[in-house]
């Protein structure tokens, strides 16, 4: 597929990882969706933050977010290849939303030609169903050591022949050099399609950049489409690189929620809906836990390995010392760790073995098959717990992504999860839990009540996608961007 097969598309590339490509794509999806039917696309994503589609397919959470911003249902075609690192240079390969194999980098790239066919088919499907496709690259576009096997940057560029917008991050310095250097290192057939540049994450007065912007435009012959200010919006993070940006408290209430930063943490986006309300503190295993108002053990790509690290580091003992003193919540792999035992038939570990858990929940988990459950669910809150009592009987939604089966005699959400006798320890397989306004309100209200603070009913329900779109319309030359895609603006 080449050229006019996808007539209305744009490819957003970056000078490096974490420059803000995903956010730019998200904003463009929202802006274009006001007039057109829009789909996001990322050929290959490497992330432990994922999402489950309505038909049970697993994709990177960034593409799900971008689809939501566009007002369309996320599908596997939007992210046909997802790599989920497992450690030891091995990743689980998710192909069109389903587990394909565990592969090392070398063996994966040996079969890269086969993957091109999957990408072409996904793009063809999207091209038939949508009027506009906003595509995203990965990492830095000019990784010259990867050119022969780069399917997400050069591969997408060559399959589609789409116009390219290049994004650079000024926050870490050297933005002019990184933009210029990336353009110069791109192969000629790709370089000629770069139609614009965006300088992202600027703090200060953009007029001080004007001289540099003008010189960059002169030596490249490519326009700078705008300078985006640094901003914090309530949009879920794409991958674990973003945890480093969460060092300072940002909640409106003085409440300390400690999230254990497991070595193989996954889907930490579960807790981002809480960040504007309370202070979420990611705690490494070798750090002090302190006396938080609540503790959360998150999901993980490998429950057994992270459980062993939790025990060996002494963090498990610190969590156990808070039993019945503060709420302790485990999600997915964190839920499994809270139980009495995990029996593994060499699915997660290297040999058949039984592992002792933290023993805070009366559950037993068994890994006996290389089979992953991926499904969206709707459940009712049906067990007593001090921090969920106020919404007992109400409905919540979420999604499951896990291996292993867990037996529970005290499920908390429908037939899912478990709550201990005190009600202070809760485990669940449901990701996206705090995206439910009723769960969020019940949990935060309980924590605030213990501190004598009244909850604000408004709960900061602004639309972050619209906020981002408005910001981009203010600081970017949207007229030129529409022109680049050959779209009518009005």
UniProtKB/TrEMBL annotation:
PROSITE patterns in UniProt: GATASE_COBBQ (PS51274), GATASE_TYPE_1 (PS51273)
Gene: cobQ
Originating organism: Methanohalophilus mahii (strain ATCC 35705 / DSM 5219 / SLP)
Metabolic or biological pathway: Cofactor biosynthesis; adenosylcobalamin biosynthesis
Highest taxon above the source species: Archaea
Family statement: Belongs to the CobB/CobQ family. CobQ subfamily.
Molecular-function GO term, any one: ABC-type vitamin B12 transporter activity
Active site residues according to the UniProt entry: 332, 431
SUPFAM superfamilies: Class I glutamine amidotransferase-like, P-loop containing nucleoside triphosphate hydrolases
Boundaries of every CobQ/CobB/MinD/ParA nucleotide binding domain copy: 11-232
Keywords: Cobalamin biosynthesis, Glutamine amidotransferase, Ligase
Cited Pfam families: CbiA, GATase_3
GO biological process, one term: cobalamin biosynthetic process
Purpose of the protein: Catalyzes amidations at positions B, D, E, and G on adenosylcobyrinic A,C-diamide. NH(2) groups are provided by glutamine, and one molecule of ATP is hydrogenolyzed for each amidation.
Domain CobB/CobQ-like glutamine amidotransferase, residue spans: 256-438
Protein name: Probable cobyric acid synthase
